[in-house]
Structure formats: C-alpha cells, structure tokens
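Hi F.,

I've been meaning to write this up properly since the lab meeting, where we talked about keeping a consistent format for the predictions we share between groups. The idea is simple: the sequence comes first, exactly as it goes in, then the structure tokens exactly as they come out, then a line or two of notes. No screenshots and no reformatting. I'm using this chain as the first example so we have something concrete to point to.
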Amino acid sequence: MAAKEIPGYAYGDKQLATAPYTLKDLEALKATVLFTDKDAKWLRISRKVLEPHAEEILDTWYGFVGSTPHLLHYFSNDKGKVDSNYLARVRARFIQWIYDTADAKYDQSWLDYQYEIGIRHHRLGKNKTDNAKAVEHIPFRYVVALTYPVTATLKPFLERSTYSPEEVNAMHQAWIKSVLMQTILWSYPYTKQGDF
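Output, unedited:
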C-alpha cells in the first residue's frame, strides 16, 4: 500500500510542522544508542524479510493490545466501546511504519514525522487525524513500555529468513536501536519546555 493511500499518513508531507529537534540532535542520539550505518543497512535488509509477514506481525501486536484491557482502553470511547474504524486506520499506518523504520533516511522529513507521531499519541493531536472518539491521551509510560513487545516479537519473523543467526541478531539489534530512538523523539510533546 502506498503511503499516500493511507488515511492520515503524512511522512514526507510538506505541511507537517518542523520538528523542534535537529539533524545534529539526531546524530548525537544515534551515537548515544550506538546506531551506525551498519544498523541502517540491516534495517533495509530486514524489510525484505518482514514485508511478506506484515499482516501477521500486526496480528501479533494487535493481539497483544486487544488482550490487554488497559492498552485497548486508548482505542475506546469514554463508555469503553472500541472504535473499530480507528483501530483499522491505525493498523494501516502501523504497517507503513514497519516499512518506514526499515527504509528510514534519517533526514529532516523523517524527524518531522517522528514529531508528528509523538503529537498523535499526546492530547495535542490524539484522535484528530482519524476524527476518532477514543480516549484523548496515551500516557507516555505506555509509549515507552511498548518498545519491548514491539521489538521482541519481531525476532521470530526475522528468524524465518535464510539469514544466519548472527545476521538475524544484527537486524534485530538495529530494530531495537531504531525503535528506541523513535520513542525518544516521540517524547517531545510530553516534556516541559527545555527538558527534552
């Protein structure tokens, strides 16, 4: 599915606000999490491995969220009814996020979209893209906590490839580093001015 076909998807969209962090900030963050050009290479390779399993990966992630009431709550209205249209639209963007993570160029457009993703989890922008009627804010603790299940559950899909255990580990480590960096960038709307 092409990015522009996904409702509310805007990676590379010139209408996004410019991220409050810079490419220089990103380079420092990459150095801090030990993310190198080799990691970027392994992420690109991982797309070929993960793309045929994208729907199954999302089934795994959505199965976890759907079986965890305090997480499913954020896709529900104030009466506890799940907004299935909202879930479906987010799912389409989540699949695209897999591809974007694998193909990331780490340019200004990518930084701007990380900022947008952070806003879409925060009360500043949650529900607006999809005109959803769900709970209006996801506490940051869950945004951070989901780093583990998202990255841990990818490894079995990477292992389905013909790559060696060492190469699978290199792909998996690249994913852990990338998702951690993204989560850190998403934190900006949750921080006080000057604290990021």
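Notes:
The domain at 21-188 is CATH 1.10.490.10 (Globin-like).
The two ends are 34 Å apart (CA to CA).

If this format works for you, I'll send the rest the same way.

G.
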